[in-house]
Amino acid sequence: MAHYLLSAEAQFSAAHTLPGVDMCERMHGHNWRVRLTVRVDETGLDNVGMGVDFRTIEQLAAGLVADWEHRYLNDLEPFRTHPPTAEFMARTIAQRAQAQLATSAPSAVIEEVALWEMPQYRVVYRP
After folding, report:
1. What three-state secondary structure class fits 23?
2. 3-125: which CATH topology?
3. What sign has the CA pseudo-torsion 120, 23, 88, 94?
4. Could you state, in order of their start, the residue ranges of all structural domains in the chain?
5. Is pLDDT above 90 for 53?
6. Does pTM surpass 0.85?
């Protein structure tokens, strides 16, 4: 089925440790970048012809990581029981996003979450 992919990005700075992963066992930080991409079927466009306003996706992406800004991620839920790897963080963002999209943009579903911990290191999660 024909569909549209719409994306917006947000950024945050945060520290973490990854037990058992060489240098990452030491506390260190990143300037993270997250891209939230949603899919809207062609039949899901509104009467103006939009799937989701980009500002809605941007605000959603920023809100999903706002509580991680300038924090030590290992101290936060859900990272107290699972280390904040880029993979687990991307999945957590996707889960948070889908729950919020159900009310803010019901015709949209999460297509993927891309998370950069450094400009050259990125993970993509597709639920």
Report:
1. helix
2. Tetrahydropterin Synthase; Chain A (3.30.479)
3. negative
4. 3-125
5. yes
6. yes
